[in-house]
């Protein structure tokens, strides 16, 4: 959702929108499907050439557990505090950001892209290794069955045959 600076009144503007055209990959590689489109509800103010947006954003996602690969539905609901400033004029191909510019997004041609900033912030809220539950044991590397559900009957105590001779060096305990 793009917002022109001249459309922001002096007292600010309340905007609510859904990003229906968003793709799962825009929220990260772990996201398989958007169950509900990303949304945002923001209060946007202009302070000179700076634009500030505060509010909430969220989405409903489908991911896979990083341990057992079971599907997970996750609802994101994030507080947002966004700052925008005009894109600086540069002559070089690369722009080097100062430390104080790391938390600032840029706009150009008098237009702020709120949708892009919301998607970026939501992508930071998606876990890198999502879990179906905190105590998920994952799957067995031998048989592929899920641990902890009675499916895996593999023997857990096995020694790599290449290390077998070392076991003979250890004294036997009675």
UniProtKB/TrEMBL annotation:
It comes from the Bacteria. Pfam families: YceD. InterPro entries: YceD. This is DUF177 domain-containing protein.
């Amino acid at each position: 959702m793009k917002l022109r600076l001249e459309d922001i009144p002096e007292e600010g503007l309340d905007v609510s929108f859904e990003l229906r055209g968003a793709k799962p990959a825009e929220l990260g590689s772990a996201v398989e499907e958007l169950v509900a489109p990303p949304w945002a509800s923001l209060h946007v103010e202009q302070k000179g050439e700076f634009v500030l947006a505060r509010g909430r954003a969220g989405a409903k996602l489908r991911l896979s557990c990083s341990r057992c690969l079971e599907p997970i539905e996750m609802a994101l609901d994030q507080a947002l505090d966004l700052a925008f400033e005009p894109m600086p004029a540069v002559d070089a191909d690369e722009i080097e950001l100062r430390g104080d510019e790391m938390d600032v997004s840029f706009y150009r041609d008098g237009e702020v892209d709120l949708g892009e900033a919301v998607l970026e912030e939501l992508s930071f809220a998606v876990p890198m290794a999502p879990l179906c539950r905190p105590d998920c044991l994952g799957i067995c590397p031998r048989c592929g069955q899920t641990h902890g559900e009675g499916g895996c009957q593999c023997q857990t105590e096995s020694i790599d045959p290449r290390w077998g001779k070392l076991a003979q060096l250890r004294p036997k305990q009675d």
